[in-house]
Structure formats: C-alpha cells, structure tokens
Amino acid sequence: MNHSYEWDWARAEKDFLRAIELSPKYGTGHVFYAVYLNAMGRLAEAKGRFLEAQRLEPLSLPINVWLGMEYYYERDYDRSIEQLKKSIDIDAAFVNGHLMLGWPYLMKGMTREAVQEFRTARELSNNNPVTVAGHVFSLGAAGRRADARALMDTLLNASKTRHVSAHNLAIGYLGIGDTTSFFRELESTVDERAFIVSAGGLRVDPFFDFAGRDPRFAAIFAKTGLPPLEVRP
C-alpha cells in the first residue's frame, strides 16, 4: 500500500528491503523492489534486482518479461526483444510476452512485427483493453490511421460497459494522434494512482520520451511526488 497507493516512497523502500531480508530467495520480492527502483530512476539497481529474481526463478514467465522490459527501459531494444522472446519460448500463449514484445519492436521502427505481436496478444486475451490499446497505437505508428481509429472506437465503446483504464485510453488516443485527449487521460492516470506510476513508467518508458518535452507532462508528473524528472533531450 505504501508503494502502490499511498505513494509514501521512503517508507515503501524500507518495506521492500525488509521483505527481501525476511525472504531473500523469493524472486517476486526482488521484482517489486526493482519496480520501485525504476520509479526512483535507479535503473542500474533495478536491473540487478531483476537479474537476481531471474536467477532465483529462471522459468518464471512474469520475471522473464520484467527483465525484458528493463532492457527496453534502458533503450537496449535488441536485448529486450531477445529476452522477451524467451517468455514466449516457454509459453507461446503467454499474453504479456507478446504484448510487451510489441514495444521494443515499435521503438526500432519494426511496425509490422509490432502490429503482429499486439494482435496476437489481443486475440489471446479476448480483447483485454490493454492489448487493444497497444494494437491501436501500433496501427497508428504503422501509418494505418483508419484501422487505428476503427479499433479505438471499439475501445471507447467497450469503456461504456466495462472498466477501461485511463492509461489504456491515453495510449489509444496517442495512437490516433489526439494529443489533447492523451494528456487528459494521462492526468486521470495519475489521479487514479494507476500502477504505471508507482512502477516508474512515466519516468523510464521510452513511450513517454516525446511527452517529457511538453510542459503538460511536467505538471502531471509533479503530482506523483516522485523525484524530479531529468531533463530530456
């Protein structure tokens, strides 16, 4: 609670360290602390914790994906792709493996591969909103704006009958080029205390690099109480 909702960052670190002290061989404990470290901007320490978690639980699908995403956060996209494929090698039906693999593909400009991974994740998850949002964004990045808008309409219609997080809506809106709605939903993401905030996504995810140059992003980020953002080029 101190980490994911209360946002008492100092107390959260003490809690994570105490948990690891009590159960040093529990891989997920290292993962949660690594997630916290990302939020603090301490990526090198975070990667060390993810590597330790993988050493403890080498066949854990979530841990393999988390490590792959850490390479993505470091902008080491080739290594991220290599690592994320390992989770799919273990289980080809693992939704998060396909979902997360789409992002480093996008950052490398490999839009065809990205679209395919998001589509696969969407089909495997029976249109879970997070996979639909990623698919919308990838279609937009691939220049398929009409397809992106049609799928975004599907996501918006779904939001009338089920919960669709503001974070997912933000991704979708950016995919169709609606930056005004993107920033509106991003602010709601922070107001909702969504996991992406406490997981450090707003700080470390390359997806937000463009936003870091916009004063609206700085104002939204300031609401988190996290250490200030570094100046982005």
Note the total helix count. 14
Mean pLDDT reading:
94
Order of helices and strands: HHHHHHHHHHHHHH
Termini distance?
34 Å
Reported for the largest beta sheet, the result is: none
* Structural class category: mainly alpha
Helix content: 55-70%
Q: What would the principal axes of the Cα set say about the shape?
A: globular
* Relative strand content: under 5%
The counted number of beta strands is 0
Please state the CA-atom Rg, rounded to the nearest Å: 17 Å
Stretches with pLDDT under 50, minimum 5 residues:
none
Structure, described:
The protein has 233 residues and is an all-alpha fold. 70% of the residues lie in helices and 0% in strands. The chain is built from 14 helices and no strands. The mean pLDDT is 94.
Walk me through the topology.
Elements: H1 9-22, H2 27-40, H3 43-56, H4 61-73, H5 77-90, H6 95-107, H7 111-124, H8 129-141, H9 145-158, H10 166-175, H11 179-191, H12 195-198, H13 201-204, H14 215-222
In a nutshell, what does this entry contain?
The protein has helices at residues 9-22, 27-40, 43-56, 61-73, 77-90, 95-107, 111-124, 129-141, 145-158, 166-175, 179-191, 195-198, 201-204, 215-222. With 233 residues, it is mainly α.
Which key terms come to mind for this protein?
233 residues
